[in-house]
Write a structure and sequence with these properties.
homotetramer; alpha+beta; Four Helix Bundle (Hemerythrin (Met), subunit A); paralog of FGE (formylglycine-generating enzyme); three-stranded antiparallel sheet; 9 helices
C-alpha cells in the first residue's frame, strides 16, 4: 500500500511540484469522465456491486481527506462531519461504513455539494503538499501517489458502473455518441506462442509505485506452456454459443453450471439477440456485434468453459506475467481509455503476442492470494487489498476503460468468478 | 372505476370548464409537492414498495395519456413510444410493465423531460376536453375525474415515499423546514362512544365520484359496539413499549410475531431512541416525540397487538363507516395535507368522536375484499382496485398527507399488514 | 377452546366411561393410519409446512400430557423431560418450540419410543379419568374432548403430509394399494341453487363441542345469492387449463399471479402431464385424472381465478354455512375418511345441493377473522386458533381424509391462499 | 481417476483375489459404521450439504453398478431401473440427478431394500471379477480400486454427516457410547520447524493408486518457510475467542467477516458455552472441551483469522506436501478412524513435526486448482474431481474419521471456505 518511493530531504521541491501536477491531472480526469452525465445519472446504483457516479466522486475525495488531510494537515477541518462514515467504502477499522446496497438512496449531499467537497479537499491537499516538512514527506508522497492510483481505479469503475446502470434502462441511453468507431480490420489468425518455462521472478520491482498485493517480488518455477497470440474474438465465442456451449454441463465447473442455470445465461452480459442478429449494449448505445473484436463482459466461468470447449485452458497469472514482461513495447497498439474507443478493438497485428495490455482484463486461472512473504500494511490502509484474498480470481492487463499508464506487468486485478460487468475477456493458454 | 357522473348533451360546457379547472389544480398540486426537492431527490427509490418522485410525476401523466388521449383524442401522437411500458405501474393487460424494484435506475428520461411530458399531455388533455363530442363525453369526463383522484392518491404517495427515502440518509435531510409546528395542547382523555348496532347501508352513494371498490352500496348487520373517541397517542403507545409489548408473544398474531422477530422491530417506523429520549424522523427532519399526538407509521400487526394489550380490538370497516357517517362536519378540526403540518396532531376536543378524517389512516380489522355484487370494470381499468383484494387490510379516514376532499365516509384504502411507511395509526373499538 | 359441555357432579360416571371410549377410539385411529407405513416413512418432512408422521403421533400425545396430565394428575411424572419443548408445535407461552422446519431431523426418539410415549400417556389419561373429582371434572372433560378433536385434525394432516412426502419420491410409492376405486358414474350437470338472503345466525350452538373460533354464534345479514349444486370437476378445470387459464393475468389476483409465475404453476398440485395425458399422484399412487371427480389440491388463488373464468365467485363463509344448515342429512353420500376412498368422488345425485361435506375443503372468499365478540381463551390454549387470524382464508366442509363426524356446519378451517397440499377444491357461488 | 495400475494378462488371478478381498473389506466397513444406527437415523439429512446414511450406502453401490457392472458385466440386469437417477450424486453426463437437498425425503427404498441392493451388487461384482477377461481387466481393476477409494471417502462422510444430524437434535444423542477416551497428556509446546525451500516435485507418484487431482507429479519452487510442529489446540483457540477474535474485523478476510456476522459465529461448530464452561458435541455425545486436543470443525475463514491473530499464516499445499514427504513413518501416533477415538487427540511427542496425518484435515491457503498438465478423464468419471476446481480450498492429511491408509502425502481434499462440518483444523506456517 505504502509506496516504495522515498524522498530525500532538500530535493523534495521538484518532487512536490511533480506530484501536485499528477494529483490535479488525476482529479480532473474523474470529473471529465462525468461531464456527459445528466445530474440524474450521478445517483444511480444499478446493483449492490456498483456505486453511483456521485459516490465515486465523493469516495475518492474521502480517501485524500481521511488518509492525508486529517492525519497530516494541522488544523484541517473536515468538510462535513458525517462524510467520514458516509463515503467510507469498506474500511472496518474506521467504523461501520454506510450500507453498500443503499448508496443509491443518498440524494444528499447533492452533486453540486460533492463537487464543492472535491474543490475543498483539492485546495487543502495543495496546502498540504506546500507545507509538509521533513519526515512526513515520504509518507505523504506515498499516500498521495496511492490516492491517485486509487482514484484511477475508480475512474475505471465509473465507466463500468455507468455502462451497467444505463444498460438497465429500456431506453438504452448512450453515455457518449462521439466515441471512436471500430475500423474494419480483417480477422487475424490466432497463433500459439510457446514458452519453455523455467525459474523466474515475478512481482513489482522497487523502482516505481506498486500496490501492496504486487509485492514482494519472488521466485517461481514454470513448466513449459504456450500462450495465444491474441484475445478470443466475438466470432469465436459465437461458435461456442452456437455449439450449445451454454447447455452442455460437461464444459462447466460445477459452480459455473449452477450460476448459468440460476441466471439463465445464454450469452455474455449486454448481448441481445434481436430478430436473429446479435447486438450488444456499449457506452455508445446499442451496437451490432463485431466478429473480430475481442469478446468481453464474460465471467470466469464462461472463460473457463470456453477454454475447455477449445481443449485449452486459461493462463496462470505467473505465466501471464512472465510472457508480458518479455513483450516489446506496443503502446501504439494498446487500447486504453485515452484511445477513446471505450470498447475492445480487433488486434492490428499477427505473429506475435498482442493485446496483453488494454482492451479487456484477461481472466487467469489463478485464485487471488497473497504472494509469499506478503504482509498487509498496518492500520486501515491494510484493508485496501489484503482482506479480499479469498474466492476471487486474478485478472491481468487492464482494459479499454483503464487509464493509460495505470496498469503494468505486475498489476493484479481481482473479481469473483461470476462477475461480468467489468470489461473482462479471454486469452487462451495451454501446456506444451 | 368509471364515474357514476353522467353528462347530458348540450349542458356539458359548464361541466367541461369545471373539469378543466379541477384537472389543472390537481396537476399543479403534484408539482408543488415536488418544489422543495433537489433534482437528485427525484430519482430515489428507497425500497421496492416506494417509487421515485420522478416516476410518480410520469406515471400519473401516463394514466391520462393511456386512458384518455390514446383512445379518445384523434391523431394524438404519444410523447415517447416507450413511455407506455416504462410508466405502466401494474396493468398487465397493457403489456409487461417495467420491473418495479428497478424504477430507481431510470435516470432517463430526466426530470426536465418528465416535466415536458407533463406539459405535453396537459395541453393535449385540454384539447380533448374542448373537442370531445356527444357520446364520448360521459366516458371522458368519468375517466378524467378518475385520473384526478388517481393523481391525488399519488400525491399522498409522493410525500410518504419522500419521507421514507430521506429517512434512509444518515444526514436526516428535512423535506421542508417551514412546516407548521404542533401547538402545545393538553392531553385529552379517551372516551368510549357506544353504538347500538342494527341494519345499515354502507358503500358509496350514486351522487358523487367513487372508486369501484366502494360500490355497490349494500346492506349490513352490526351488533352493538363501542368506538374510541380519539386516536391512540404516542404517550399511550410508549406504555406498550415500556411494558415489553414487542417482547410478549401472547399479544401478537402469529404472522405478526414472526415479522417483529425477523425485522427486530422495537418501536414504530422512524422512531429512534437517542440517549434515552425518543425521537422520530418527520418531513421536517428529526423531532422529539410529542406525547399527545397520535402514534403513526404502525403496521397492522402492531395496531392489533396494541389493541390486545388494552383488552380492546380494532373496528371493522363497517363499524367505522357507520360511525363516521353519523358524525357532524368537523372540517375545521381535520388535519389533511392542506393544514400544512404533514404530521398527525393532538385532538383539539373531547367528549365526541374526533379525528375520524385526516391525521392517520386507521387500521380496521377487515380484510380488503369485494363488496357483495362487486364487478371489476372491463379492460385495463379493471385492474385498478380489484386484483388487490387478497392479503391486505382496509384502512379508513385519510391522513395528514391526504389532499382535503379526497377521502369520504366510504373510501377504502388498503395495505399489507406489515406495511408501515404510510401515516397509519390506531383507533380502538370493542364489543359492548 | 374449552368445551361448552358441562358435567354435573354425581352423574359423571357414565360420562367418564363414554369419554374413555371416545379417547381410545381416537387414539387407535391415529395409529391405524400409520400402519401401512415403513419405519422410514415416519420421519420424513417434505417441506416446512408438513410434519413427519412420527411427530404428529408425539405432538398429539404431548397435547394430553401438557394440558391434562401435568396440571390435573397428581404426582404425574413426564415421560421425558425434553419432550415438552420437542413436541410443542407453536405455543409460545410454553417456551420456545423446537424449530419447525427441522422436525425431520429428529430421528430420536425413535418410532418405538414414541409408541411407548403414547402408551404411557394413554395409561395415565385413563388414570386421570378414573380419579378426577368434583370441580376439575368439567375442565378435564372439556380438555379431553378438545384433545380428541385436536388429534382428529392431526389425523387429517397425517394423510395430507404422507401424500405430500411420497409425492416427492420419483418412485411414486402408494400409501395403500387396497383403497376403494372411483365407480364409473356419469357426469351430472351443475345446477345453480338460489337463496333469498336475509337475517341469519351463524356460529356454533351451545349444544355440543365446538372450537373457540366457531363462537360466539351471532347474527348476520346476507343479500340474495346462488350456490352451485356440486363441486367443480376435473373436467371443468381442464377447460380452464386448456383455455390458457394459467397464462392469463386478467383472471388472477395480483398476489396469485405473482405466485403462479414464481412457482411456474401450470396445473393443480400432484398433476402431471405424461405424453399428453393428465395423471395425478394419489394416496394409491399415480392414477389417471377422472373427469367427473372434483378437482382438488387447488390454492385459493386458483379457485378464485377459476371462478372469475366462469363469471362467478366463491361463496362467503356465511353463505356457505347458511346453505349448509338448510341441507337434509346426506350422510350416505358423504365421502369422509371412513369411506376409504381417500380421494374426492363424483357426486351421485343432481338437482339438489350435494357434496357440502367431505370430498374436498371448499375455499370461501372470507378471510379468517374473529367472530364478533370472540375472545381467545386464557393461557396457552388461547394460542390454539386465535393467533392465526390474519392472512388466511376460511375453508368449509371437510374432505375425503377428514374423520366422519369431525366437521359440522359451523366448522372453520383455514389456510394461506397459496397452500395446496390439503384436499382443497371449489364450489362456485354468485350474486342473484 | 483411472488407476495407473496395470495388470498383465495371465498373472491376474492373484491380483483378482487381492482385489476381491479389498472390495469386501471396504464394503463391510461401510456397513459396520452404520451398525450403531437406529433405522430412523438412516434417513436424516441435516442440511443440503449432508446426505442421509441410507443414501451414502446406496450411492456407493450405484457407483459400482454404473461404472463396472453396466459397462463390463454381460447381461447384467439393474437392481432397479430408477436407481440410476435416484442415487446419482452429481454426474450431469449421466442425466439429471435427483435434487440434492431432497435426499432426506426418500423414505423408499427402505433401508432393508438398500442392504439388498448392496448384496445384489456385491454378488454381481464378484461375478465380474471372476469372469472378466483380457483387455478389460486393467480398466475393471482400476475402476474397482477407484470405487473402493470412493466408498472410503463416503465412509468419512457417513461419520461427519451422522455427527451433524445428531447435533441438531436437542436430545444430543451419542452415535456410540463405547468410544476410546482421550488420555490425560500434558500439553506440549508448539515448535517452529524451518525448511530452506528449493525446487521439489509434488503430486502422486506412478507406483500406487491416486486420484486424478493428485496428478501429474510436477516440479515446484518453494521459498524458505517454517511449519508448526503440531496442530493448534483448543486451549490456544480459546485465547483467540477470549481476546475477542470473533469481534475484530481486522483479523478477518472480508468474505469471512461477512460470514461470521451473518451466521453469528462465536466459536467452532459444535461448541456450546453452558454456564461458563465450554462443551462440544462429539460422536460420543456432549463432552467438555479438552484444552490440549486439536481444535476442529473450523472454517477456512476461522483458520485464517486465527493465523493472523498469531502473526502467522496457513501453509500452502506445496509446503505441506514437501514437509510431509520428509517425515519418518509415525503410524503408531496417527489417529485415523481405526484408532476408534473418532475425535482428534493431543499430540504425544514434541520436537518434531507431528500430527500431519489423521486427527484433523489441515486447511492450506491454496485454492483448489488443477495441477499443471491436468486433464479430467473422459466420460462421466471426468466429473469426479475436475469440475470442483473453483472457490474451494485444499485440505491435507486426513482426520480421525478417515480410514487408515486412505490418505497419503499427495492426497488433496477440498471444501468451501465456510464449511465446518468436517473434522477440519489448523496447522500454522510462516515465512522465514
Amino acid at each position: 500500500m505504502t509506496s516504495t518511493l522515498g524522498a530525500p530531504q532538500g530535493v523534495a521541491e521538484t518532487e512536490k511540484a511533480g506530484l501536485a501536477v499528477r494529483y490535479k491531472q488525476v482529479r480532473r480526469a474523474s470529473e471529465e469522465i462525468c461531464h456527459p452525465l445528466a445530474i440524474e445519472d450521478y445517483g444511480v446504483q444499478g446493483m449492490a456491486n456498483t456505486s453511483p457516479p456521485r459516490w465515486h466522486l465523493a469516495h475518492t475525495t474521502w480517501f485524500f481527506e481521511t488518509f492525508l488531510l486529517k492525519p497530516y494537515l494541522p488544523r484541517y477541518t473536515a468538510f462535513h462531519p458525517q462524510f467520514e462514515s458516509l463515503f467510507n467504502s469498506y474500511y472496518e477499522t474506521l467504523g461501520a461504513p454506510f450500507s453498500r446496497p443503499l448508496r443509491g438512496v443518498l440524494s444528499r449531499p447533492t452533486t453540486d455539494e460533492i463537487y464543492s467537497y472535491r474543490a475543498y479537499v483539492d485546495t487543502a491537499l495543495m496546502e498540504l503538499i506546500g507545507s509538509v516538512r521533513g519526515n512526513d514527506w515520504e509518507n505523504v508522497a506515498a499516500r498521495i501517489t496511492l490516492g491517485c492510483h486509487h482514484e484511477e481505479q475508480h475512474q475505471e469503475l465509473l465507466l463500468t458502473d455507468i455502462k451497467y446502470n444505463f444498460s438497465l434502462n429500456p431506453l438504452c441511453p448512450a453515455y457518449r455518441t462521439d466515441l471512436r468507431q471500430t475500423p474494419h480490420e480483417k480477422t487475424l489468425a490466432l497463433d500459439w506462442m510457446p514458452h519453455p518455462g523455467g525459474i523466474y521472478e515475478i512481482g513489482a520491482k522497487e523502482t516505481s509505485f506498486s500496490f501492496d498485493n504486487e509485492r514482494p517480488r519472488h521466485r517461481i518455477y514454470l513448466g513449459p506452456y504456450t500462450l495465444a497470440s491474441r484475445l478470443v474474438t466475438n466470432g469465436e465465442y459465437l461458435e461456442f454459443i452456437t455449439a450449445g456451449g451454454y447447455q452442455r454441463a460437461e464444459l462447466w465447473l460445477a459452480d459455473g453450471w449452477h450460476t448459468v442455470r440460476g441466471h439463465h445465461w445464454q450469452a455474455p452480459l449486454y448481448w441481445q439477440c434481436i430478430e436473429g442478429t446479435w447486438w450488444q449494449f456499449t457506452l455508445g448505445g446499442m451496437q451490432p456485434i463485431i466478429e473480430n473484436a475481442p469478446v468481453c463482459h464474460i465471467s470466469y466461468y464462461e472463460a473457463d468453459a470456453y477454454a475447455r470447449f477449445r481443449d485449452a485452458r486459461l493462463p496462470t497469472e505467473q505465466e501471464w506475467e512472465v510472457s508480458a514482461a518479455l513483450q516489446p513495447a506496443q503502446s501504439a497498439a494498446e487500447n486504453f481509455r485515452e484511445s477513446d474507443f471505450l470498447h475492445p478493438q480487433p488486434t492490428p497485428r499477427q505473429g506475435q503476442i498482442m493485446q496483453m495490455f488494454g482492451d479487456v482484463w484477461e481472466w487467469t486461472c489463478s485464485a487471488y492470494a497473497p504472494y509469499p512473504g506478503y504482509h498487509a500494511p498496518a492500520g486501515a490502509l491494510g484493508e485496501y487489498n489484503g482482506k479480499f484474498m479469498a474466492n476471487q480470481m486474478v485478472l491481468r492487463g487492464g482494459s479499454c476503460v483503464t487509464p493509460t499508464g495505470h496498469v503494468g506487468v505486475a498489476y493484479r486485478n481481482f473479481f469473483y468468478p461470476h462477475d461480468r460487468w467489468q470489461f473482462s475477456g479471454i486469452r487462451l493458454a495451454n501446456h506444451l
